[in-house]
Every structure is written in structure tokens, then in C-alpha cells.
Amino acid sequence: MAKVIGGRVLELVIVFFGVTFVIYAMVFALPGDPIRALAGERPIAESTIATLRAAYHLDDPLLVQYFRYLGGLFTGDFGTDFSGRPVGAQILRAWPVTLVLALSAWAIEIVVGLGLGLVAALKRNTWIDRTILVTTILATAIPVFVVGVSAQLLFGVRWGILPVAGDKAGWPVAFILPAAVIALYGLAVVSRLMRSSVIDNLGMDYVRTARAKGLSRRRVVGVHVLRNSAIPAVTFLATDLGYLLGGAVVVEGIFNLPGIGNLLFGAIRSHEGPTVVGISTALILVFLVTSVLVDLLHAALDPRIRHD
Amino acid sequence: MTDPLLTIDGLSIDFTVDGSTSRAVDRASLEVMPGEVVALVGESGSGKSATAMAVLGLLPRTATVAGSIRLRDLELSGLDDEQLRSVRGRRVAMVFQDPQGALNPVFSIGFQLMEAVRQQDPSLDRAGRRARAIELLGQVEIPDPESRLGYYPHQLSGGQCQRVMIAMALASEPELLIADEPTTALDVTVQAEILEVLRRLRDRLSTAILLITHDMGVVADLADRVVVMRRGEIVETNTAVELFERPQADYTRELLAAVPRIGLRPSPTALDPAAPVLEVADLVVDYRSRLRGTFRAVDHVSFTVGPHEIVALVGESGSGKTTVGRCAIGLAPISGGHVRVGGIDVVGASVAERRTMHRTVGVVFQNPAASLNPRYTVEQTVSEPLSVILGVRGRELRERVVGLLESVGLSGDWMSRYAHELSGGQRQRVSIARAVALEPKLLIADEPTSALDVSVQARVLDVFRELQSSLGFACLFISHDLAVVDSLCDRIAVMQRGRLVEYGDREDVLTRPGDDYTRRLVASVPVPDPVLQAQRRQERLAS
Lengths: 308, 543
Fold this sequence. Notes:
The complex is a heterodimer of chains A (308) and B (543). Chain A has 308 residues and is mainly alpha-helical. Chain A has 2 domains: 2-78, no CATH class; 88-306, MetI-like fold (Orthogonal Bundle), CATH 1.10.3720. Chain A is built from 14 helices and no strands. Chain B is α/β, with parallel strands linked by helices and 543 residues long. Chain B contains 22 helices and 20 strands. Among the domains of chain B are: 99-173, no CATH class; 278-372 and 440-527, 3-Layer(aba) Sandwich (Rossmann fold), CATH 3.40.50.300. In chain B, 39% of the residues lie in helices and 25% in strands. Chain A binds chain B through residues 3-4, 204-206, 208-217, 224, 227-228, 301-304, 307-308, and chain B through 56, 58, 81-82, 85-90, 93-94, 96, 98, 101-108, 115-116, 119-120, 152, 154-155, 165, 168, 290-291.
């Protein structure tokens, strides 16, 4: 097991350097001059441009810039954007919003997704199962901005049950609608995975053994089947948390939540290279950590993996 | 006379799938007395397992049950899941065929045992349950039971898992134990041990056992009475001794005649050792894994297969016998030594040499359902090697396919069928036809009849023998079944844990084994004769 984790960490390091370099290089190659973008319509002196370029090391070769940036990262410095605001502070300000949103959406995926999957499996081929199937297919088929805007219109504007936009109302009221909209897709996947997994497991020999032991149906399903069936769904859920923490650009936009997604979108639009790279780097770290989490969760659920 | 413990009276079971109903069990009646071992015998599809499942209401939802099942005075048929729980595990316990699959893979065996213990005696505290679980493991002779509690099913062998299953079944000291093919998935020496465990439990706890099996040797070993089923109907009920000596029903006689036995065939004439078709010299196969280190699957094994000769490669699961076979067709990594097929060394063979080699070697695998392409018709399957390798086309191809199918006893009518439309025996015939299509010099047969019922096996072996004498190919016959090997092979190589422990003429190896392990292997094969089997058991236990 220690060997496995060691191997994973090594992979993480390689992935970390590879991905951050690619993103850095891509932002570096973006068309348009950031100094000109900063200046906007105003005329700007050549000498000022030169000073600014020097200050931001824009004339150094790509590799030098990259390593200087990495050096800063290891001391916790994400650099500053072209307006002089520290990127680290911006990320720290936006992240809690995204974190709350992501965890809320995740909780909905777990509870509703696993629940629907279990119910569909236990009631398979009945109208309940079919209703769940149709609903989840719809949920994956409709684009997220359609669902987002419609939900906003119905719950926010027409019925006025929930806030239309913004995070002024705080958790949970302000987050219910956006979290539910984000969760819809993952929830559909989780419930499909869970359904087929539970059906597979119900047909396993060990379920017959558990019944032959005289266990109640509640215990057979709730203990024996559930843990085995949860394994594929948990894999998806853990990976999905990584996506969710990356912020939902569209949904944060629709509901005007000042999260990572919004920040990233704004930064790309205004050619704020340092901000884009900073956010991407932070996201990669989150992703890498969740991928290790998947492995550990797997091992915790399935002893066959633990002893491999 | 005492009252029967279990009375099954006029039991019928129908399965309804997609609107069509088929009858699995037809008005079957049988009784099990307290402390008695009753064997329910039949081939696959005879309804024996369905009958056993019906007792505890474990049939799938597609089944409809009619008739009566009584446990002493309690009518079981018609009870729902909740009502049956007072019987399941408490008064009637069950042991299944595939012990590793029957245990939950994600919980430790301690957890699963203690769960069974709590089910029977909810008043016990945690320490009490643990103590009882250890005691139960001790009863089924698991070494060091205390430390085994934390093990997971995948860390135990099949035999140990089956012991755990039996321990679990005994948690409540049930009146009746239903054992559904309890030793079918196990090696023959392990089978002998498990049967011993069952016998001792019966003697000590006087638990009645309803033993479901297709193996007449197992019946002879354990059963007091035998019920023979065929196509859902009971054709004979008899005491074990009577059944083997004076079988009443024609079907029982057929069944007994089909059982292969050791030591009924005279040795063949000596063979020409020159120019072997297959030469395995000092073969070593290592499997390297990053986590487990190197595992030596085959450890310096040498033997030869001469022209027209059938050599058996015998051993238990994990002995490396299949790996040796795979080396000969280039499917396993050879770490050391040589494998020569028709004089060409598999290691370092050129592409052209490999092509020649593939032409001279045919292969038949164990599971005919999995080794036939499900989207190919029988004709496509058998014609593929002819058209791809020899370039035979058109009418000639068709005629040769018909000829091949006829040689394995299938008429040309079967050509357009798909694998799933064939029975297990027919599929294996198709596999054999495909394997001999190129008239190979060497045929490698890896457990070709292990998945088949005994009467089907007998017919497939007949086909095999006829083909071998007419085509004259040499054969490496990989098997765990000594009786089959005895009926077919000229020489026997015995493998244990990757090593070749014995290699010689069939008769010598089976009647005068030089190696301890071979002796144990031969002694463990149950013979279909209760009197002789009891005698052999005594001898085995004494030694």
C-alpha cells in the first residue's frame, strides 16, 4: 500500500509540472498584448510600456518566466495581476463561495443520486424505475444554462420562493437553486451508476448467502448490497468533486455568484495571465488531491484493492 | 419409525421468463430423516438445485412453486420472506457451490460469521459473538482461527472459504444443512477434506444433510440415501449401497456407466520416444508483479509428447499446468528453458516459423461458451482456420466443414446455429472440430470436459478418442480429473506448485505412484462405490 501511494505521489508531481507548464505556455501564447489591454483606449508612452514589461518580466524567455513563477508558488506567492492586486488574495476571496456551492451540489448528488439509484434498482421495471430513468435522461439532455435560467425565472422571479441572484442571502437560501442546477447532471450519472450496480449486486451469490442466514431485507440491502454497490458511484463522486471545486462558470454567471468560475471568466477576458495561471494551478492541486482521495476511498471500501 | 425432518410432497416449480413458462421440477417428493444424509443427484437442468432453493424460499422472482414443503410440522411453502427468516439460518442452513462468491467480498469473514452468530443469538455481546465465531472456525478445522477473523474472502483459498461457509451455517446448530454442490468448485484433495468436515459434523451434531451433487463419487462417500432426478422428475430413490449395486432406473444405470473410473484399462504398447512432437525442456515461467514480486508459476519442468501419444498434465488449480500449455502456443512468457513444437523452438521463432507452428498445433479450451465467438455460426467458427490459413474457398470449404462436424458427431444441420443455441457438449464438439480443422500434429486440450455433465463428458471423450485414432495427432491433455485421464491418456505428468513431481506411464503413476503428492491425489478421488469408498477413506485417514 505504501508503495502504491508513493507511486501515486510521483505521478502527481509529474502531472503537476506538466499541466502547469502547458497552461503557462498557452496563456503566454494568447494573442493580444496585456499591457495594451491594461491601458484600454488611453494612449500609453513607449517608455511606460518598457518599464511595465520589465516589471512583469514579459521579455524573458518562456522557460525563465515559468520557473520564476514556480519559485514564487513554492513560497505561497501566486504573483500579482496587471492591476497590482495579488492573485492569491483574489483566489482566497472567491474560493469560499465556490467551495460552499460545490459542497452543496455534491451533497445533493450523494443523497438524491444514490437514493434514486437504490430505489430504481429495488423497484426495477416498475413505473417508479421508468419515471426515474426518464427524469435523469432529461436532466442530462437539457443544457445547463437552459435549466439555470428557467429555474431562476420560475423559483426566483415568478414565485419568489428563492433569491434570483447574488449571495447576499447567505447559505443555504442563496445556494439552493444554483447548487441544485449544478448537481442535476452528476446526480443523473450517479443514479444510473448506482441503479445498475445495485441490480448486479442483488444477483450475486453473497446476497443469497445473506438471505439464507436469515438476515432481514433491510440488512441485506443496507449493509451487504449497499457497500458493494457504492464502489463505482463513489469513484464518480470523488472525481466529480474535483470538477465542482473548479467552479461552474455558467451557473456562477447566471446566479451572479462571485466564485472561482466568475473570477476565471473575467481574467480570461481581460488577458490577466497571472490570474488565469494562478487559478488553474490551484485547480490542478485540488484535482490531484481528489484523485488520491478516490484511491484511498476505494481502498477503504474494497479490501481486495487494499491488499493488492 | 421416527417422523421425517423434511418432507417434500408433490413439489412443482415453474420458471416464467418473457411470458414463456418452463417446468423445472415436476411433482417431486422426497423425505429427509433426522441425522440422515440424502443425496439429490442429477445433471445440470435436472431441477435438483431448484428443489433445494425452494426449501428456503431462495428461488428468483420468476419462479412459481406449487406443492408442499414441510419442516417437521411447519409448512414452508407459501411463507413470505419475513416468515421464512425464523427458519433460514436457524433451523435450516445452506452451503453453496462457489464458496468465494458466496461470501461478501468487502467484509471480513469475522464480520460475516459474527453476523450469523448474532442472528441466532441476539443476547450475546461482542466478545461473546467473537468467541463463538472462533469456536465455529475451530470446528471446521481452520488453523489459527483467532487471527483468521480479520481475513477477507479473497485472502483465503476456495477450500478455506467453504469451511467458513460451513462454520457460518453451523452457527445455530441447524437441524438440516442443505449443501448445493459444496465441493464442485474445489480441487480433489480439498474436496476430500471438506467431505470429511461434513461427515464429522453429521456425526457430532447429528445434523441432517441434503446434499445436491452431480458427482457419484461424492455420493458414494457421504450419502445414506440417494434421490436421482432427471428433467425435473425423480426417477429413483434408494439407499446408497443398493443404488450402486442394483440401480433400478435405466437412467441411474446410464449415469453410473458414464462415470469414469481409475484402473479399468490395460496399458497400451510402448511408444516411440524418438522425435517428440512437443518437447518441454527445463521450462521456467516467472510472473513479475510490481507489488508481489516474482511468482514462479512453472519451475524447471521437462517432459515430451511423442507422435500419436496422449500425455496428461495433471495438477490442482494453481499448479502451473495451464501455464505450461499456454507456453506451447506462445501465450505465456517463457523465462527460461525451451519449448519445441515439431522441432521449432517457441523462443526466438521467426514469423514464418511461428506460422508453421500455428498450423501444427490445435487448441481446445475449458469453457466452450467463452471460447467460441458468440457472433459466429458453427460454420464460420469451423471454416475460419481453413479459409484464413489454408485459403480453402467455396464448395470445398463447405464440404470440409461438413466432414469435420460429422467427425465430431454433429450433422450438417447445425452449421447455421450460433454458440448460444448449442448445449455445452455440442459447443465443445464444435471447439474440437475447429481445433482439428488443420489436421494438427499436436492438440493441446485444457480441461476440455471439466465444464460438462458426466454423461456428456463420456460422449465427448468418445469423440475425442475416435478422432485421435483416425487423425493420429499427439495430445497434451491438461486435466485435474484423474479418472478422465486414466481413461484416455498414455503417460501422465503430475505438477504441484509449478514443479513436475511425477512423470511416467499411466498405469505406473496411478497404481504405483512414487511421489507423496501423487499418492494423496490418487487416494482423494472418490470412487462411485460406497463400500469401497469407505474402505479407501479409512486407509487415507490412517496414513
